[in-house]
Amino acid sequence: MTWSEMQPLLSDACSQTFTMVLWSTVIAVVAGLPLGILLVLTDRGGLLQNVLANKVIGQIVNVGRSMPFIILMVALMSFTRWVTGTTIGTTAAIVPLAIGGIPFFARLVETAVREVDQGLVEAVQSMGGNTWTIVRKVLVPEALPSLIASTTTTIIALIGYSAMAGTVGGGGLGDLAVRYGYQRFETELMWITVAILAVVISLIQFAGDFAARSLHRRGARSGPAPKLRLLKAKEPAAAEISKVA
Amino acid sequence: MSVRRRPYETHTPAPCRNRMHPCPGTPTPAHSTVTETHVITTSGLTKVYRSRGREVTALDGVDLHVREGEVYGVIGQSGAGKSSLIRCVNLLERPTSGTVTVAGQDLTALAGRGPRAGRELRRARSRIGMVFQHFNLLSSRTVQDNVELPLEILGKSGKERSRKALELLDLVGLADKAKAYPAQLSGGQKQRVGIARALAGDPKVLLSDEATSALDPETTRSILQLLRDLNRQLGLTVLLITHEMDVVKSICDSAALMERGRIVESGTVSELLATPGSTLAAALFPVGGEATGADRTVLDVTFHGESATQPVVSQLARTYNIDISILGAAIDTVGGLQVGRMRIELPGRYEDNVVPIGFLREQGLQIDVVGQDAPLVKEGAK
Fold this sequence. Notes:
A: 10 helices, B: alpha/beta, 2 domains, 6-stranded mixed β-sheet, disordered C terminus
């Protein structure tokens, strides 16, 4: 296989993976964030203590997390058809990816939010803040470095899941590697796919770590003001990563 | 708001408070901010924690009365219930029974059922400032933004918030740190930010939950000084809890001692000192020393207020021509007054010393004979 033959295959696969991972991450973050926060708030001793709700949400999240993705994908077929009108193709693959990503991200959010110092919650309560204020001004901003790290982990997990999307004709890099690299013995193409995935994953991990670290160390180094400004300049970048990827 | 004199100012006019620099004639207006109005009152406050079938009584019928404009210290060992007490005052902790009244408002009536705070309670809380042992500053916000947080909750405009925040940072001496993050500050600076933040809602009452316990002695002094200044300048009532006697000694007008969920002693510092057998007074002014022989009389002499300025010991020695040994003494400035205790030894048995003891009592001193009757004064805890 020559490069000119591989090139369109690769660029198609890349854009399919990108589409699947982008949308499923967006949905997982949007839905998983409130779910994770609710898990903390409804827990025993939480601000909205509700043992029953906590148990129910916790159970759903547990089941969703431990379900093998390939089974989830098949099990969700009828739901996928109801949402997208089809069970085949890139768009259809987004549905199970997002559903798989939500509990995954929710658990990570729960852990991140739980680590926020309870004293800060108390401080805001003593100022007369309500639960919504506490979520908005304390839990989310204080957990932000961890939340960004969690988003990174979720993106990478979803890239992994998306390789299985080939089974429902979703395409993408994983599917390409299986169909050409494995079934047609195009070893070169397979290695190129592997290399692309390795580079992409490393880049995402690096960017995520960098963003989380810059936020986390905010002000920790009693360095001069320019350094602070540099860190500040990176903050929007962190937000971008979570949106784009 | 009527300004009344404190009880000990009433018995003797023109008190002279400073032995080093006597001030004849003009008594300096001391803490004129204290009035007899009770700004914090708890009655029958009880808190029982239940966990896994076990019950722990943290507060057992606590009645606390904090007067407007005073610095009130609650002291006790860890586990005595003082932390539960202060957290019940703004209902961060719901009392099991009893009432809490702050600035004339019954907070327990506002609480409602369930753990969530209703609008009324939240509004009342915003008028009570609170500072914490571990500062509890948001690491994601700058110093200025931290101070602005309570103002955001109150719904103030951005301009007003930043004006107020900068004004408060100036008041606590941190105007130049407005743009810094908490991680860049020292412990003492963090607590100053905590205090500025607590003052943002213009509270009448400041609750201090072990505010200096995480600080070194020097920083502790400067933070206490700041609290004292705020108390004087703003007429702020301060209720603080601590396990350090020095905190009570340096800034409190009144104090209470807690043990196993109960207040065992309370009152103004001079009232405590005048109470025979007061554990708090003994801890505030520890005097030690045993009789050097069998034929000796050991006395604890308590000075409260102006009598500390009289050279009573040398007068006694001269008048009765007896030799006096000082076994121990603790004299200090408490709430701006020179007060203290001294343990002295006179030759001869108690029966031989009735006259000199009578002389000391005539001078307006409180005399406890050590080893006579019941042991009146326990050894200092310090």
